[in-house]
Design a protein that fits this description.
There is one protein chain. The chain has 15 helices and 14 strands. By secondary structure, it is of the alpha/beta class. It folds into 3 domains: 171 residues, P-loop containing nucleotide triphosphate hydrolases (Rossmann fold); 84 residues, Rossmann fold (3-Layer(aba) Sandwich), CATH 3.40.50.11420; 110 residues, Rossmann fold. The protein has a 6-stranded mixed beta sheet with strand order 2-3-1-4-5-6, sandwiched between helices. A hairpin with a 3-residue loop joins strand 2 and strand 3. Helix 12 runs parallel beside helix 14. The two termini are 35 Å apart. The chain binds iron/sulfur cluster. The site of iron/sulfur cluster (SF4) has 9 residues, from loops.
């Protein structure tokens, strides 16, 4: 089966105290021994991610977390990792045992509620205990599923049907059906040119996710898409009988291509499209203001949502710092974080410059954005910074400003 990228799946975070049956539940849902199940408390040392198709919900990532009450030597690290799972969970399952609803479970509810994450409570009812009145009272306002995890096929099917129904009842529509990248950018039957530079920073033998996703979604709406390297853009434009409706390029070649594109053709970048699709466009745009107030030796966080070996052309580590120094006329200091790593202490930064975030889900991107806002740290993204430095920001944000004005 062709696996969907994790960032396009719905993340189902499974939370609960150690040894309450979280891993058993994940294995039961997936039908595989994804998570190690043991009677020894704290067996799940790190979050375990399992991608599966859970129809009719669609592709999901089940995340089995370590219990936050883990008291083993490695517990702090495990707890930190479990805490990170809160940032990306679209919908949660709190696993508990009959008649157990303590401050521990209440804290999970508080954390999920703070993050506006919907959840169900799963009572792992394996011993058929009588439920106490106080327990029933404590969880009565939540969606609750009581089940035993029995192995008979018909029982498992009934369990899964109920489980999916419960989730479908609480998953917000915008999580269930992600907004297409083409929204506000390419309309049905329009023509788009995608400009994809193939330099040392390009992954070998493949296109990156935003490019692939854009091509697929453009096909879905019967648009015509031409894909060219920056060096072939002029030739492509010359060969078309009619001008394209939009040109979308990789941020790194904005400067090279902007003058080739006719002024009456819309122009933007993959990075800015992702920002508009995944985060709050206006907050990222506001972050650009911080660039104007930077001082020598200020510290900037370059945040990348995936890990890769940095080439000598690396956009976040090499090119942006170089272009920024030359634009500012002085040097600032940089820290880089990649993948799931994200610093807790962000107050020391004068600005966060985030990548497009194609490898993380919308929830995690929004969590990062909110964390920056809570800590009063401006945040923007690669595409906006590069376009600002190259005096093309107004032009590349035009499709979104226009869409906002016209309401489509
Ligand atoms: S650095 Fe960011 S935008 Fe680029 S591929 Fe990784 S996650 Fe996607």
């Amino acid at each position: 089966m062709n696996r969907p990228p994790r960032s396009l799946t719905i993340y189902i975070g499974i939370f609960g105290r150690t040894n309450v049956g979280k891993s058993t539940l994940v294995n039961y849902i997936s039908g595989q021994d994804t998570s190690i199940v043991s009677k020894v408390a704290g067996t799940t040392t790190d979050a375990v991610y399992k991608i599966m198709e859970l129809l009719p919900i669609g592709p999901v990532t089940l995340v089995d977390t370590a219990g936050l009450d883990d008291s083993s030597i490695l517990s702090k690290e495990r707890i930190d990792r479990t805490n990170k799972v809160f940032t990306l969970t679209d919908v949660a399952v709190i696993v508990t045992e009959p008649n157990v609803w303590t401050q521990y479970e209440k804290n999970i509810v508080l954390e999920l509620t703070r993050r506006k994450t919907p959840f169900i409570v799963f009572v792992n009812n394996y011993k058929d205990e009588q439920l106490s009145d106080s327990f029933v009272e404590s969880i009565k306002e939540y969606k609750v599923q009581h089940s035993k995890l029995l192995n008979e096929q018909s029982y498992r099917e009934a369990f899964l049907n109920e489980f999916k129904r419960n989730l479908l009842d609480i998953i917000p529509e915008e999580t269930l059906n992600l907004q297409p990248l083409t929204d506000n950018v390419i309309k049905t039957h329009q023509t788009a040119i995608l400009v994809v530079p193939i330099d040392l920073g390009a992954p070998k033998g493949r296109l990156i996710l935003p490019q692939v996703q854009m091509i697929r979604e453009a096909l879905d709406i019967s648009a015509m898409v031409y894909i060219v390297k920056d060096t072939e853009l002029q030739r492509c434009l010359d060969s078309l009988k009619n001008k394209p409706d939009i040109v979308i390029c990789d941020s790194q070649v904005v400067k090279k291509v902007v003058d080739i594109i006719p002024k009456d053709v819309l122009f933007t970048t993959f990075s800015i499209i992702f920002t508009s699709n995944r985060a709050d466009f206006k907050i990222m745009l506001k972050g650009i203001e911080a660039l104007k107030n930077l001082k020598k030796d200020d510290r900037i966080l370059i945040a990348e949502a995936c890990s890769h070996h940095a080439s000598k052309d690396d956009i976040g580590r090499i090119k942006i710092p170089k272009w920024l120094s030359s634009h500012l006329g002085f040097d600032v200091k940089y820290d880089v974080c990649a993948g799931m790593d994200y610093p807790k202490d962000i107050k020391k930064y004068s600005l966060i410059i985030h990548c497009g975030g194609c490898m993380i889900n919308k929830k995690q991107m929004i969590s990062r954005l909110n964390y920056a806002i809570e800590n009063n740290v401006p945040i923007t993204n690669y595409g906006m910074v590069i376009s600002f430095i190259n005096n093309t920001l107004d032009r590349v944000i035009e499709p979104f400003i226009k869409a906002e004005k016209t309401g489509n």
